[in-house]
Amino acid sequence: MRRLISFRDFDWLLLTFVLIICALGVLEIYSTTYGTKFAGAHIRQIYWVLAGLVVMLAVSLINYQILLENANWLYFASVASLLMVALFGKKYLGARRWIQLPGGSTFSRRNG
């Protein structure tokens, strides 16, 4: 069954409040980093906000009925991934956090 997507059903008030909070966050980052070596960090935050909006719009196009029909499988996949980390996870800073991928890479971010 195909669901028609209408922007009338979109929660515009929620989007407005999210954008206001994001704008306040960008303003705070700008005012905090102004005149420091981190000046311009607010630009990167704006990029992340825009990327988040794109992802939000993409997710809003998904028919949630399909997710409801497959909720059991998604739950089992989540539990299986947690078990995989518990069994095969790499210890980092005293906790099992990352699964080593082929080629020696992980999902972790390395600083330095």
Give a description of the structure.
- The chain has 112 residues and is mainly α.
- Helices cover 59% and strands 8% of the residues.
- The protein contains four helices and two strands; from the N terminus they run H-H-H-H-E-E.
- Strands 1-2 form a two-stranded antiparallel sheet.
- The radius of gyration is 20 Å and the shape is flat.
Structure summarized in a few sentences:
The protein is mainly alpha-helical and 112 residues long. It is 59% helix and 8% strand.
Along the chain, the helix and strand elements come as HHHHEE
* Amino-to-carboxy terminus distance: 50 Å
Q: What is the strand tally?
A: 2
User: Could you say which overall geometry the principal axes of the C-alpha atoms support?
Assistant: flat
User: Within the largest sheet, what's the order of strands?
Assistant: 1-2
Largest sheet: 2 strands, antiparallel
Work out the radius of gyration: 20 Å
Structure classification: mainly alpha
Beta-sheet strand percentage? 5-15%
Write the topology of this structure.
Elements: H1 12-33, H2 41-60, H3 64-69, H4 71-88, E1 89-92, E2 95-99
Antiparallel strand pairs: 1-2
List keywords for this structure.
8% strand, 112 residues, mainly alpha
